[in-house]
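Morning!

This is the sequence you dropped in the shared folder:
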Amino acid sequence: MKRVVLRWGGAIAIAGIGALFLGLRVPRSLASLNRKHEQIRRLQQENADLAKEVAEKRERIRKLRGSRSEQELEIRKRLKLQREGETSIILEQKK
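The structure's back. Tokens below.
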């Protein structure tokens, strides 16, 4: 009879220690899980933004390849050239 009580007592003590261990560990793991989910959401948003930027740049390249006037505008803009009679307005950039 004593052995049965000792076995059950030992099993209950082990279960109690296990529950205590899990009780102390679970809140930290939940906080860590929430941080990981937030990090995943941020990275997904960053990926979506980058995909949109890539699509816009591809569209711009497509337009430049297909249109001589687009090419001319881009060259003139980069080299800061004007045609005769054109007026250019330069605005100060706010700091």
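Headline: The mean pLDDT is 83.

More detail when I'm at my desk.
O.
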